[in-house]
Write a structure and sequence with these properties.
heterodimer; A: six-stranded mixed sheet; five-stranded antiparallel sheet; globular; B: mainly beta; four-stranded antiparallel sheet; 0% helix
Chain lengths: 114, 114
């Protein structure tokens, strides 16, 4: 049963506009969330994270928002650039277990059109 | 350069022929894990290791074995591969101190079992 879901398999955005990638989760015990970016023929690379005690974390063009009551997080990329074209995975962790098992979503392929 | 390496990057084999995919990290991380990525399913954890000689099952461990005899290496073993193990495999590592949940991924190994 998928505990982390990304319902949009793909997204196309014009260069310079905002990209919004969404992620939903079912387990309310998740307390740490991450976004990874993946280019073809490479492993996922860490992009940005947020603890469940926050509702927003910003790093340059990337901002992650967390809505715990809705069990929803989103990644905003502003402005979008062609180099942002990649597959984006959201992931969640239960830090209380002491393990580092990342529960991944199925990914959203972002295409930024020049 | 801090990195996670995997070998081989590509492998085509036949059903039942034992194989090993190696994984090595140079960051002195305690925690290492293996994931498989399949279309529509995202990344799912196969096995993980909290430290040397400490391993445990992830979400999809059937048909796989691992060992952790030294901190830097975490090989994935398929004793008798089957076609349903055709997948893209990623090794990852992270520190376990504090809230260091950012996992560093290897470049991936694409396995085809005929």
């Amino acid at each position: 049963d998928q505990q982390v879901k990304q319902n949009s398999p793909s997204l196309s955005v014009q260069e310079g506009r905002i990209s919004i990638l969404n992620c939903d989760y079912t387990n309310s015990m998740f307390d740490y969330f991450l976004w990874y970016k993946k280019y073809p023929a490479e492993g996922p690379t860490f992009l940005i994270s947020i603890s469940s005690i926050k509702d927003k974390n910003e790093d340059g063009r990337f901002t992650v928002f967390l809505n715990k009551s809705a069990k929803h997080l989103s990644l905003h990329i502003v402005p979008s650039q062609p180099g942002d074209s990649a597959v984006y995975f959201c992931a969640a962790i239960l830090t209380l277990t002491g393990a580092n098992n990342l529960f991944f979503g199925t990914g959203t392929r972002l295409t930024v059109i020049p | 350069e801090a990195q996670v390496t995997q070998n081989p990057r590509y492998l085509i084999t036949v059903t039942g022929k034992k194989l090993t995919v190696t994984c090595s990290q140079n960051m002195n991380h305690e925690y290492m894990s293996w994931y498989r990525q399949d279309p529509g399913l995202g990344l799912r954890q196969i096995y993980y290791s909290m430290n040397v000689e400490v391993t445990d099952k992830g979400d999809v461990p059937e048909g796989y074995k691992v060992s952790r005899k030294e901190k830097r290496n975490f090989p994935l073993i398929l004793e008798s591969p089957s076609p349903n193990q055709t997948s893209l495999y990623f090794c990852a590592s992270t520190r376990t101190s504090g809230r260091a949940h950012t996992q560093y991924f290897g470049p991936g190994t694409r396995l085809t079992v005929l």
